[in-house]
Specification:
413 residues, alpha/beta, TIM Barrel, 2 domains, eight-stranded parallel β-barrel, two-stranded antiparallel ribbon, 17 helices, 51% helix, 11% strand, globular, binds zinc ion
Amino acid sequence: MKTLEPYTIGMGDRFAHQGRAQLRAVLEAWDLGLTPHPVWNKSNREHTIVHSRPEDLRAEADSAVNALLWNRPYYVDADHIGLKTVDAFTGSADFFTLDVADFVGKPGGDSVRFEKFIAPWGKQVNVPGLDRPLTLDAQALAGATSKFLKAMSEAGAIYRHIASAKGTGEFVTEVSVDETDSPQTPDELFLILAMLAMEKVPVQTIAPKFTGRFNKGVDYSGDVARFEKEFDEDLAVVAFAIREFGLPASLKLSVHSGSDKFSIYPAINRLIKKHGCGLHVKTAGTTWLEEVIGLAEAGGEGLAIAKEIYAGAHARFDELTGPYATVIDIDPARLPPVAEVASWSADQYVRTLRHDRGCPDYNPHFRQLIHVGFKVAAELGARYTGALKAHADIVGANVTHNLLERHIKPIFG
Ligand SMILES: [Zn+2]
């Protein structure tokens, strides 16, 4: 089996220009004694919006790896795929995120078979490291079965479909249920992993939905102490499930961060050390935002483009925010008027957009709107990518610094 290393960082950019700048952050981390492995991720949704193809991401990753002489394993993630979308990715990806969130709560799956499978664990399960037993009584089982059994049987179907195309053991399997309405409890995570074991899915990363809000490109919103307790319990459950269900020893949690969850990184860092376990963290939007910051910083045409992206996103607010409604919280009243932004200096634009919690000008509403504004940049076509090329140095420096200093170091350091 292709076995995933303990620490992996998911990274990606909308326009396939920051492969090297991102890999440079990983290389610098290794120079400092940290050991993250890169996973280039791009969701089907993103490919559709910017009209890129899965092979483009593979080409970007390979070319960065060759240019910077990266000689350790790396991965290309078909992020958030399902049976309907996976075929376009089977040639170029070696990491697949099976998104089964749409099947959560749907009827289906063989509940009689699952009841037999889980029966040996009894009505209460003592998990080392948990201060309470997990409840597996009839009510808890019925609840979890009606919520997750169909979704996990779908994960089995997607896994087998990919395995038949690529060969068993030739790829890494992640299962994601993060894009659902409500978070999953550690008790539910245990049963989800049991269902995947029953389906014989060799899951190596599992992305539950955690408590709190993971809005795009901005900090965590929620009770940090509660998150820490839940994450601690989830890690205990994962370690236990590996032993009990014979799941891959490399199985770990995957945090679909939506980027920039700075206030929970210290808790995550403490807990992976406490448990001595691995972790996968996905980012992507943060690198797109660094591109815009770099262009604004460059001034001239770069700043003009950054302002156009804001104006375009502002004018098409409903269209662009619609697909992200559950993962953004923008108060339109807190958005600066387009005419005002048009008069801003490079410095003012950058101070408003950059995720610096200590800066009084930082505006998370502005930042979230730019986050969903990449469609406007995509429509600028060669003018946008031309600016990325012209200002590759300043953009790349922002991308590398952000990924290394604000993400990799606090999480894995
Ligand atoms: Zn996700």
